[in-house]
Q: What sequence folds into this?
């Protein structure tokens, strides 16, 4: 195959002069759109209907660093929240950025103020994990509100429940975290994995601009104790879809 003919890749060339070209970002966005997995869609809550008043909440809603996970500018990565509120990747787009860009096209009212949350028709609950790499992510507790869950996950979950509106949960995480304690509260669930800098790809899919294509690459369990057994919540290859 020629793989070891140039072991240090000294002869490899690229047409790109710098990282982060628009071509590659567009490709990255497509990968985000095609890797999202729709786990639950009761009453066809997704795609988000045109004209919806949407309350966007949760610590993963507007955080590029959380979207990237580890192995970015540093080994462990960092959330924007831990970066003094500055975007970990300045050019990156968050889920909220993507929704705002589509607001006019889909006649969406985007609400982020908790004081006005009751005015919304739908709650978009964005949850995630802290950034980590290697053994720093090892844990016997991988519940979305566990020790490695983003600060604010539980508060956002409780608020969404108290509002009583239809709720779609977006899970931003590099692994299938445990969500079974809260699933009944949510009408829709999307496993987003780590979308990196192109969080607007998530907005494109939940609004129906693009459609779901992703399926689970690993079993999704309801309890840590079930791992390596046949007691799965969702099997490998599971993934719902809808026509755009």
A:
């Amino acid at each position: 195959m020629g793989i070891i003919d140039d072991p240090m890749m000294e002869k490899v060339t690229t047409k790109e002069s710098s990282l982060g070209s628009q071509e590659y970002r567009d490709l990255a966005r497509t990968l985000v759109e095609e890797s999202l997995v729709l786990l639950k869609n009761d009453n066809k809550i997704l795609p988000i209907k045109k004209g919806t008043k949407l309350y966007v909440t949760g610590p993963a809603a507007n955080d590029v660093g959380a979207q990237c996970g580890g192995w970015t500018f540093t080994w462990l990565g960092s959330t924007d929240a831990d970066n003094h509120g500055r975007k970990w990747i300045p050019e990156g787009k968050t889920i909220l950025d993507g929704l705002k860009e589509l607001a006019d096209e889909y006649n969406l009212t985007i609400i982020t103020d908790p004081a006005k949350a009751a005015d919304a028709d739908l709650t978009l609950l964005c949850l995630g994990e802290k950034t980590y790499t290697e053994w720093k992510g090892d844990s016997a507790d991988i519940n979305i509100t566990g020790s490695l869950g983003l600060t604010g996950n539980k508060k956002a979950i409780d608020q969404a429940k108290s509002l009583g509106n239809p709720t779609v949960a977006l899970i931003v995480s590099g692994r299938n975290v445990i969500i079974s304690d809260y699933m009944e509260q949510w009408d829709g669930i999307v496993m987003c994995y780590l979308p990196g800098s192109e969080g607007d790809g998530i907005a494109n899919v939940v609004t129906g601009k693009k459609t779901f294509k992703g399926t689970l690459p690993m079993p999704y369990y309801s309890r840590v104790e079930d791992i390596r057994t046949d007691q799965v919540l969702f099997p490998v290859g599971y993934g719902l879809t809808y026509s755009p």
User: Anything to note?
Assistant: The first strand starts at residue 37 and ends at 41. The radius of gyration is 19 Å. The beta strands are 37-41, 53-57, 109-111, 122-128, 167-172, 188-191. The chain has a mean pLDDT of 94.
